[in-house]
Structure formats: C-alpha cells, structure tokens
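Before a colleague's protein record goes any further, I have to sign it off. My question to you is simply how this chain folds and whether the tokens agree. I do not need a full report, just your reasoning and any doubts. This is what I was given:
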Amino acid sequence: MPDMQRQFDTSLPFMKMHGLGNDFVVFDNRAQSLVVTPDLARAIAHRHFGLGFDQLAVIENGKGDAHLTFYNADGSKSAACGNATRCIARFLMRETGRSELQLTTERGDLMARDAGDELTSVNMGQPQLLWNEIPLSEAMDTLELPIEGSPTATGMGNPHCTFFVEDAEAIPLEEFGARYEYHPLYPERTNVQIAQIVGRDHIRMRVWERGVGITLASGSSSCATAVAAARRGFTGRNVRIDLDGGTLWIDWADDGVWMTGPTMHVCSGLLTPEFLETVG
C-alpha cells in the first residue's frame, strides 16, 4: 500500500469514451508513468465504487503515432479492443489535425483513418484462422467446432467463438456467454457472439466479452463475426452489423478487416488521491 500511495500522491487524469455504448476509461500516459495493476483496473471498473468500464486503455509513446494497451474489467490484459482503438484514434486525429494514423498494439500495427461524417475506421489486421493462432487447445478445423451449435473460431488478436442462430434475441446471453467463455477448447477463454443472419450484407449480433460479460458492442467481436459469416458462406465480406448499442460496418478487405463506426468522448476528469489510496 505505501508504494501505491506514493505513486498516487496527486490526482490522476482520465477520459471516458464509448463506441456504441462499449465504454472505456482511457489514460494518456505519454507524459506520465502510470503503472496499471490488475487491482487498479478492477477498482476503476466497478460501476458503483469506481468509474465503470468495459475496457481500460492506456495511450503511450511508440514507434507509430501511439501505442495502445488494453485491460478488461476483471484486470486481465487484452491484445485487441477495436472500439477503444477507434475512440482513441478519433481523439488523436482531433489533437493532431491529421486524418490517418499508425497505431501499435500487442495485436500489431493498426492503421486508422477518418471515414467522414464523424465516423472512424480502423484496420484490425488479418484474421487468425488456424487453431494454434486463435488459440484452441488442440488441432482442428476452426470453421465448425465440435461444440453444440457448431460455432466458428476466429482470432482477432483475441479469441472468438461465433454461434449462428435463427433468433439472436431468444438466446439467454448471460447464461450462454458465461458457459462458453471458459470452454476447454479455449485455453485463454473466449469472447462469445450470438449472430443472426438478416441478409447477405446484414447481421444482428449480441456479444459476451471475456473478462467483462455482456457488452452493448464489441469491435473485435464484430470483425470476427463478419469473417466467420463470410467463411461459412452466409454473407459477403462487406457487412453491416447491428449490435445492442448501434451499428458497425465491417469490410474484410485484402489488407485486413476494416471496422467503421461512430465514437464518443464523454468527459475528461480526475481520479482523486482519496479514491486511489483505497486501491490495495
């Protein structure tokens, strides 16, 4: 506790952002040296005793325009977070006056650009389709897993399990997502998507994120679902995905999976020393 108190002897600035209700706390670490611990992430994530978030993101200096690191609400790290990447890209575009950026993450280098009409696009890279890339616990075809419902496995820097169903609203997602997040085929746990094909270019999707639970939207989940639907022959490679919080547009292009949608910078503020000293 004393070391933590010394680190937080002053207030800590933060930003609150969201993409379609998929919400984030963002720390700009380019001019400070904040160390995010699992305890700190969990404390801030609490929606009654902290700020609340689906993911926490840290902006740091890197070889590109910025390096991004992501944490889930349970304190675990995530290599990718598409909606947070879009939100931070929009923030950095406004800061720099530029319309294109190169961001780095554990997922790899990601290109972001202004798509017009206050929409932001990010190239989330090529999907990971091999069992050991996602990863799964044993060698198998990732197109239809040996799980009831024959879901499709996809990696987007984090693992995904997409179930295609007749009616996305009819699935009890809280029970369903919790059950499959920890499936033994996924040694690093998985995000779970419930996807309903509305048309050749239209999907309705609901999502359970590992380490978080039900979220109103998920960028990497949307990319994974679009890839899975195209691989299964249900859609083309350019689709609209309607989530609980709004709509994303996904284009599985030759250079990677592009995701486009709106962002919102809700507020900026300070975490007080009083709050930070409670983090053990």
About this structure: The CA atoms of residues 232 and 253 lie 17 Å apart. The chain has two domains: 2-124+263-276, 152-254. The domain at 152-254 is CATH 3.10.310.10 (Diaminopimelate Epimerase; Chain A, domain 1). The chain has six helices and 17 strands.
